[in-house]
Amino acid sequence: MPGTGPSHSHPNQIPFPAAGGGDGGNGYRSGGGKGDRSGGSADANTAHNELLVALMVALVMMVLNLLLVHSLGYLPPPWLAVWLSACACWLVSLVLLSPLTAVTSWPVWLAAGGVGLLLTLVTHATSWPVWLAAACVRLLSAITTLPVVLQLKAMQAAVVRRLQAYEAAAQQEAADAKRALGAARAKLAIARGQAPRWDAGDVVTPENCRVGLKVVRGPDWSEWSNADGGEGGAGTIVRKAASPDLVCVQWESQVGEPDSERRYYIVPGRYQLCCAVPYTV
Length: 281
Description:
Keywords: Membrane, Transmembrane, Transmembrane helix. Helix content is 52%, strand content 13%. It is α+β, with helices and mostly antiparallel strands.
């Protein structure tokens, strides 16, 4: 019946489910689907043909090599089986080596066979162990090349990953250092814009007291309130009083004011002053 597909399907036809918008629901993919199948088949046929041609060329080269060596007297008839075994190993090595070196074109196989003939003429290999050893070397090289290539690629990928990690870490460290430098500069600018602050050092005693010594309030400061301009304010000893237990101090916050000098005790139990040391964060 029309629209239900062919009554007798050809053995080579592959049915596909009908899709919306197809050619009348005939059960086969239309348009691009056929083109994709035909293109894939063409590629597969091309690769298959190249492989067949390569095998044929290899067999022809082996026969020519055998005739050449036998005609030159290099290979006695009793060792024919050994020579054929060596040729078979050589053929297997070529087949195994082709995926690794991407040798998929028959001219390359032909060139390889020609090189083999030239090597036969040049080296004059007259002993069957030489042939067998050469075949074994080719076979082993074909078998061991793939793991080596894979290992080298893995090592290369690992090195690339390590370099990328080092680069990312260096960039992160540079960004952190830049932020820290900016913060330090901001703190320095703020510190330069503020009045200097002082911490309390050793207490002032008659032994270490001298004129010009910068001082701050001491541990026994009590009744003088903020006469020094507040905690952290500094003053300077301007002179010693008549009593060795007293000194006169001029505070920076009161410079220029009349009667700004104040007298303070510097004896045990009444350590009202300490040596001023720079304030640190």
